[in-house]
Specification:
264 residues, two-stranded antiparallel ribbon
Length: 264
Amino acid sequence: MMKIMNILAILSLLANADESAKVSMSTIQTSNSLTVSEAIVKDYKSFYSSERLMSLGIGFLAGGILANTQVDENIQNWYQDDIRSSNTDDFSNIAKQFGEGKYLIPIALLSAGLNFYDPELEIGVWGVYASRAYFIGAPVLIATQVSTGASRPNEQDYGSQWNPLNDNNGVSGHAFIGAVPFLTLAHMYEDNSIVKYLAYAGSLLTAWSRVNDNSHYFSQAALGWYLAYESVDAVFNADKKTKNLSVTPVLGRDSYGIQVQMKW
């Protein structure tokens, strides 16, 4: 219970770091205007768009290069030998708690429930978007953990290399879970630089803790964070108001007219 209260307290402090901060909802539809099924359909369309799949592919390609060369091993050895200390371990013990799904997922769902009580309550808005990000990102997390088949440091002879279906640690679940709450805040307060950048920094803490604790290689922690980023961005992008119809004038030397563009 104390761990849960600590997480809630830190999130609350971050959300109210600047008294003048206002949630940037001007381009976002109110979440309570959608049914659960409508939100799910919109989120999956946004997440599985060709542009986002391309971005995810590039991200996992980069992660694969790190994992299947000596880069991951070199980073791990350097950090463990030259950086890790009792002080980093103490801080890592706190940062890891943000990646505990048994705490953060119930907190997000309970917070989302407040949105039905008061749609303008910011903790409720945060809960809705964090829950939706978990919902669309979790299946991909599980699939990529198994498909990459990588193991933890000092667990197998092949180190960080991908071995499909042999293990399930190629993407850090803690890094994914721990990044979503902070990335959600960063998107909510995108017009407030202080809160936004503090939230982005906070989103990296759990991923860093996994490297510090020698529980994941750098690429595994980075991929967990990146999957969280794409999941949160997809949810917010799904709710952005876009113009389905635009009309613009076209002027040329010898001609003129209008251009009509439709999006669907």
